[in-house]
């Protein structure tokens, strides 16, 4: 499994890439493997203010539907439009083309997020 060191992680299996006051969010390689073949992504929070821990959408796999939890507080600026027609990008490239949302951070405190090493320890990798 892949755990890029430059990213931050949540206990709910989302990853975050922070660049200034913009954060890109997706689900981890571990999460997509656990879910299996992803067939649909439902994110309708564009333009919404979200608080850390809020559900910002769902991901549907062949066997289950799982909520997506916001790792940091901010405003949803963009949803990855490629996922409408190609939700399998999350399986193929979870840290690249499979990103889910970009948010404008209302605060940049990422102290509650996990490092790559801490996340690997959490999932037993």
Automatic annotation (TrEMBL):
Pfam families: GCV_H
Subunit structure comment from the entry: The glycine cleavage system is composed of four proteins: P, T, L and H.
Similarity annotation: Belongs to the GcvH family.
Gene Ontology cellular component list: cytosol; glycine cleavage complex
The gene coding this protein: gcvH
Record organism: Pedobacter aquae
Function: The glycine cleavage system catalyzes the degradation of glycine. The H protein shuttles the methylamine group of glycine from the P protein to the T protein.
Residue ranges constituting the Lipoyl-binding domain according to the UniProt record: 22-104
Cofactor requirements of the protein: (R)-lipoate
Alphabetical GO biological process terms: glycine decarboxylation via glycine cleavage system; protein lipoylation
The protein's name in its UniProt record: Glycine cleavage system H protein
Cofactor binding comment, as recorded: Binds 1 lipoyl cofactor covalently.
Keyword line: Lipoyl
